[in-house]
């Protein structure tokens, strides 16, 4: 830990000792976490110039740290801290009720729709900022993966750097099974079980992120299974094989069946059905997770649909 957390220029060189929790972490990621407020550009410049050293030697940003390493930190300027926006009581109470699993290394929540996973783009707080305020004794809380703001369901937060690295490895190697429930307009063909279409991210002039199918995009694969049919819609299960932004939503639209409540990738028919059903949010829910925890074996978790989504299905059934 830094031995000077005061704002403004830090006078003199000081050193950080790498603890066991940070062992194996990249040096740049370690610095960003420990030296909050120092611009990343300044950190990388200090690395390039050899101002930051590990065990008295020059190293690159991607150097992996070991427990006990001594990291030399030069005088760096940190802006005066500003008090974070307090989490509204509504979100605080809701999040405390939606913890699905917790141990010393991992926290899993059933994220409510309408809450972004992190602040930014005009948002003063998100899920991760809220958790850090609600759990001040947790020194380390980091998102393992992301969910769209309007998507509800299971999301993992690592409480130890070692577990974050392990779960990222499992995600890269497709060893974590994530399943979503989605409601689409129309009759999804039972034979349509895989959509493979490359996806490309675009940022509009307004700053809004949009994703489209493009030959220049990244490889993207989603598996789909029909769960229940209705006269005007189909409840499907989606398993993203790759993890691209808005992947399920864009692949469903590409197949000709937009998700209900999707104001980014919808069409007039879908919007009319949403209006008739009184659905006022995206019908996409991260229902289940299956993974392996080091030293603890396999873990499978499920989160039921929120009442508003269940009510929509009941209206269709009746």
Task: Note the main attributes of this structure.
ten-stranded mixed beta sheet, elongated, Pseudouridine synthase, alpha+beta, Structural Genomics Hypothetical 15.5 Kd Protein In mrcA-pckA Intergenic Region, Chain A, 3 domains, four-stranded antiparallel beta sheet, 318 residues, disordered N terminus, 8 helices, 18 strands
List the helices and strands and how they pair.
Blueprint lengths: L7 E2 L4 E4 L9 H8 L5 H9 L4 E2 L2 E2 L11 E4 L3 E2 L10 H9 L1 E4 L3 E6 L15 H8 L7 E2 L8 E7 L2 H12 L4 E9 L8 E3 L2 E5 L5 E5 L7 E9 L3 E8 L6 H8 L13 H10 L6 E10 L3 E6 L4 H11 L1
Parallel strand pairs: 10-17
Antiparallel strand pairs: 1-6, 2-5, 3-4, 3-5, 7-8, 8-10, 9-10, 11-16, 11-17, 12-15, 13-14, 15-16, 17-18
Notes on the structure:
This protein is of the alpha+beta class and 318 residues long. It folds into three domains: 8-78, Roll (Structural Genomics Hypothetical 15.5 Kd Protein In mrcA-pckA Intergenic Region, Chain A), CATH 3.10.290; 89-164, Pseudouridine synthase, CATH 3.30.2350; 176-317, Pseudouridine synthase (2-Layer Sandwich), CATH 3.30.2350.10. The protein is 24% helix and 28% strand. The protein contains eight helices and 18 strands. Strands 7, 8, 9, 10, 11, 12, 15, 16, 17 and 18 form a ten-stranded mixed β-sheet that branches. The protein has a four-stranded antiparallel β-sheet with strand order 2-5-3-4, with no helix packed on it. The chain is elongated and about 70 Å long.
């Amino acid at each position: 830990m830094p031995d000077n957390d005061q704002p403004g220029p830090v006078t003199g060189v000081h050193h950080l000792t790498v603890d066991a929790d940070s062992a194996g972490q990249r040096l740049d990621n370690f610095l960003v976490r420990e030296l909050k407020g120092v611009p990343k550009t300044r950190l990388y410049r200090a690395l390039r110039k050899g101002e930051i050293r590990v065990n008295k030697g020059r190293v690159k940003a991607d150097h992996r740290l070991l427990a006990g390493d001594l990291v030399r930190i030069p005088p760096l300027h940190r802006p005066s801290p500003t008090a974070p926006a307090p989490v509204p009581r509504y979100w605080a109470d809701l999040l405390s009720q939606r913890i699905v699993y917790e141990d010393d290394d991992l926290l899993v929540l059933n994220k409510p729709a309408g809450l972004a996973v992190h602040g930014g783009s005009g948002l003063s707080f998100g899920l991760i900022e809220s958790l850090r305020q609600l759990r001040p004794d947790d020194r380390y809380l980091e998102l393992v993966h992301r969910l769209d703001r309007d998507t509800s369901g299971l999301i993992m937060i690592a409480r130890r750097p070692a577990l974050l690295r392990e779960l990222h490895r499992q995600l890269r190697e497709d060893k974590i099974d994530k399943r979503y429930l989605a409601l689409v307009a129309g009759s999804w063909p039972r034979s349509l079980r895989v959509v493979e279409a490359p996806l490309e991210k675009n940022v509009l002039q307004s700053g809004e992120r949009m994703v489209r199918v493009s030959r220049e995009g990244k490889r993207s694969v989603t598996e789909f299974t029909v769960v229940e049919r209705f006269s005007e819609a189909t409840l499907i299960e989606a398993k993203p094989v790759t993890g691209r932004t808005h992947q399920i939503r864009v692949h469903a639209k590409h197949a000709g069946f937009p998700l209900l409540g999707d104001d980014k990738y919808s069409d007039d028919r879908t919007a009319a059905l949403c209006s008739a059903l009184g659905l006022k949010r995206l019908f996409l829910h991260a229902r289940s997770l299956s993974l392996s925890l080091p030293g603890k074996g396999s873990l499978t978790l499920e989160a039921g649909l929120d009442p508003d989504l269940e009510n929509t299905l009941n209206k269709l059934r009746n």
